[in-house]
Amino acid sequence: PAAIHRADYRPPEWLVPDVELDFDLAAERTRVGARLTVQRNGDHDAPLRLDGEGLKLIEVKVDGKPAEHLHAQDALTIPIVGDEAVVETLVEIAPGANTQLMGLYESGGILCTQCEAEGFRRITFFPDRPDVLSRYRVRMHADKILYPILLANGDPVAHGDEEGGRHWAEWTDPFPKPCYLFALVAGDLVANQDSFITRSGRTVALGIWVREGDIGKTGHAMESLKAAMAWDERVYGREYDLAMFNIVAVADFNFGAMENKGLNIFNSRYVLADPDTATDADYDAVAGVVAHEYFHNWSGNRVTCRDWFQLSLKEGFTVFRDQQFSADLGSAAVKRIDDVRALRAAQFPEDAGPLAHPVRPDSYIEISNFYTATVYNKGAELIRMMHSLLGAEKFRAGTDLYFDRHDGTAATCEDFAKALEDASGIDLARFRRWYSQAGTPRVRASLTHHAGEGRARLVLEQTVPATPGQPRKAPVPIPLKIALFDELTGQKYTDRLVLLEEKRQDLLFEGIGGRPILSINRDFSAPVIIETDRKVDDLAFLSARDDNPFARYEAMQQLMLETLVTAVSTGSADHKPVIEAIRQTLTNPAMDPAFIAESVLLPTEAFVGDHMLVVDPDAIHAAREKLRSDIGDELESQWRAAYASSSANRFEYSPAAKGARRLRTVALGYLMAADAEGAPAMALMQFENADNMTDRQGALGNLVNSDTTERQTALGAFYERYQENPLVLDKWFTVQALSMREDTVDKVAALARHPDFLLANPNRVRSLVGAFTANQRAFHHRSGRGYRFLGDMILTIDPLNPQTAARLIPALGRWRRFDETRGQMMKAELERIIATPNLSRDAFEQATKSLG
Ligand code: DPP
Ligand code: ZN
């Protein structure tokens, strides 16, 4: 398969201002009639070329008459005389047989669509590119019993009954949109209905559509939607523009959710929540994703992307917006910790490996492979840095200008930067390098103190590492929030935003009498790796006394990380400083329990691995477990106290109650790690008495690491209680895939043969196989059985669902990071994948690039 290059972009040869679609819906066979008004764009004599994949073509007409055409290689080419025509096609598709979950497909008896990025071509012939914007009128016909509800984009126009127990409905969407935002849903659904009054006084009808049994789990999504609508008016001045907004939940979905105009389609895991089945983290994720998709109505739909290389234009910006929203609604400090954790777990390794690519990529083979942590999460960090550089007010002026200037058009990342620049007067010329250069910059910070002169000097040096196809890099502007504290008094000498623009910069600070301690990249103001030579005592100081919560968390993480890296590389380490720092945090009455719970958690095994030259999964596991058990042991009475003080409340979804639940399970984890007396019984009691999923899953997640009868009891009971609930059953698979037990690799292989393991359901695949690849010790089992298992899974899933298969491949691409034996076994799996006949384009690209 050939690569597509950003530099080759050309405007579309034909525009399609108006589209009328007519669907005769049925699972086995759906007929799609399309009537396109096409217009020649520019001075050329090229024929009309429409994309189409897996479509059975029945007829083609131009201006009402059967027309000459060529149907070959996923395209329909039609010569057109003149500059305008009406082109009609009729095709047949089979939604029930669509396992890729792209285009029109069936999920649990519901017919639904997913068109981003290039799924519309699997529904009808069309110029399937985001810079062709059309007004849609859509008519659906279907069996009235099987599909009583018929939804599409925009507003309903009319509906009626037909012969043979069928009915029809027609919808129109007045806003021109690219075809990737097209959607329809037909199914036996019920709605949680509500309304929202916009700031200009228009009433919007809101509906969250689910299967009948799930209606009781839609309240949180509805509250989140209304909060998001109000927030976008208040913070960005963005008002909703149609009379109706619908969300539909489906069980089989490749992504998290999709922002189709007026008709968002969601993976049910980001809609359904009640205390018995969803954890606090699930509630937060529902709110975050509902907001994200809603925010796309402006950042994505009203202003869309010119081409798919610009994907971060909508995704990076919208992730930043949903992060701000969640921070405003809950604990901003904990939200920032979560976001940075996600960035470091997924994006930093991507940026350091064979699949590294810029936030605005230069080429791709299959665009589905570029819905990555780099485009989404690093993209959001870029927006966040511009927000810091401009300040909130000028940033808002910039986004206002951007929305004004580009409303109704398909824009580029460059357009966004230019609007911010024009509105603020701040030069972002160099900042644009962040869009074009891959790799995580490293900043080395060395602070020296001249006590006699009352002066401190900070030297900052940056390097941007080489990445595939980009051997040499220019320095990028790095906004760093920096503070200095007096070692003895704790007094803050200075607190400011420094812009490191050059390769090296020197900063002088006056009036620094006592020895200063450096706090840097506060709030994680830039997505970089900081290297300092701060001593253990300095980190302990910051973890207790820094007034920036993120910096406190970060100092503790650094302390833990250094301890673990020392233990792994030398065989032992002094655990005392970490234990004392945790003691300080744990016993500080001024701190929020939610924050305490996050900051006393050790970095993951994978994160420790990212800081080693050669990852030794077994040694990392052993060192981390030793530290965990010492922390549990030394602070046993504090953990018991924390456990007791955060127990025994009835469920409530409030920040305080969430924090208490979080701390309770973290405390339990340390007691379990230390083999404290009665800990497994405490865990089982928590499991059995819980009135909510957070406590129940928390207990199970701890028990599952142990070798106790309580483990068996809890796993069995959980399965019995929830076997009919797919989203909760996913959790049952996940906790076992994440187990730290030695036998996890074999348990996971056995679970893949469990009757409830469904290859066709992406959530289930991710719950077991995806989670397993995140379990460093188990996946990298020295036998290579983990690699073999993953290779088998990828090859089994690829023919069904290439997107889901391809997303499992990057785990194997980390082969350079491991010892020779493991590395060779990982490469062998990649080679086996590449050698497989009829491999998808998705898997081919990921596997060949991963081999490097
Ligand atoms: N555009 C979707 C999102 O919201 C992904 N298909 O990220
Ligand atoms: Zn998005």
Automatic annotation (TrEMBL):
Q: Which Pfam families match?
A: DUF3458, DUF3458_C, Peptidase_M1, Peptidase_M1_N
InterPro entries xrefs:
Aminopeptidase_N-like_N, Aminopeptidase_N-like_N_sf, PepN_Ig-like_sf, Peptidase_M1, Peptidase_M1_dom, Peptidase_M1_pepN, Peptidase_M1_pepN_C, Peptidase_M1_pepN_C_sf
Q: Which CDD domains match?
A: M1_APN
Q: What is its EC number?
A: 3.4.11.2
> Which residue numbers delimit the Peptidase M1 membrane alanine aminopeptidase domain?
221-434
Q: List each copy of the Peptidase M1 alanyl aminopeptidase Ig-like fold domain by range.
A: 439-532
Q: Which cofactor does it need?
A: Zn(2+)
**PANTHER family documented for this protein:** PUROMYCIN-SENSITIVE AMINOPEPTIDASE (PTHR46322)
Q: What is this protein called?
A: Aminopeptidase N
Specify the species.
Sphingosinicella rhizophila
